Amino acid sequence: MTFTYDNIYSNMIILIDHISMGVRFVPVKAFLVPSAMDELCHGFNTYREKESFDDLILSFAFILDFLCIHPFRDGNGRISRLLTLLLLYQAGFEVGRFISLERIIEESKVTYYDVLEKWWHENQHNPIPWIEYSLGVLIAAYKEFEEWVNLAENQRGSKTAMIKETILHLSGDFFIQDIEQACPNVSRPTIYRVLAILKDEGKVDCIVPGRNARWKRI
């Protein structure tokens, strides 16, 4: 199943499943994208400054509007998830540092598209289903985070096991500070020792050395 633009259908997003073809939705026309994005960002910043809405609700509504504008030819979903992480970090929700929200969304992609289709095709203009879905993703991430932290703590108090479990669940590149946040009772020398072991085992690599070294899982 793939999505593609089709010039014949006037900027429509076409869904192809090798059997049939149909319009997923019609995004904002290209020449209107700059003004639509300006209006979206201005409205978001204004409401956030006035504290008119809870930051979570405002952030999820921003992402929904971004997806409806669909400003890029490709990669809008991936960019929307990066924006989600950024807005959540700014709102004080940092679980995305340790649990992959993108994976949770991928695992629930049927619901993801169902919610968006209701907004796009049924003319409901009701953001509640999308906000509820997004909150569900966030709650699932925190539950998973809680489970693996408890698992690490229950392994006879092994700090090494806790660090390894933390690194296993980190999303993307990471820093020493990310591990320290997840394992506040573990000293930095212990973290370095475990990283050295994992590096020797070929499980992690230091991609930017130095005082603020950046690491990645292999």
From TrEMBL:
Signal peptide feature range: none
Entry superkingdom: Bacteria
Stored SUPFAM superfamilies: Fic-like (SSF140931), Winged helix' DNA-binding domain (SSF46785)
Keywords: ATP-binding, Nucleotide-binding
Gene3D superfamilies given in the database record: Fido-like domain
Annotated active site: H70
Residue ranges of every copy of the Fido domain listed in the record: 3-136
Gene Ontology molecular function, alphabetical: ATP binding
Keyword Nucleotide-binding attributed: yes
Positions with a binding annotation for ATP: D74, G75, N76, G77, R78, I79, S80, R81, Y112, Y113
InterPro entries hit by this protein: Fido, Fido-like_dom_sf, Fido_containing, WH_DNA-bd_sf
PANTHER family: FIDO DOMAIN-CONTAINING PROTEIN, FIDO DOMAIN-CONTAINING PROTEIN DDB_G0283145
Name of the protein in question: Fic/DOC family protein
Annotated organism of origin: Pelotomaculum schinkii
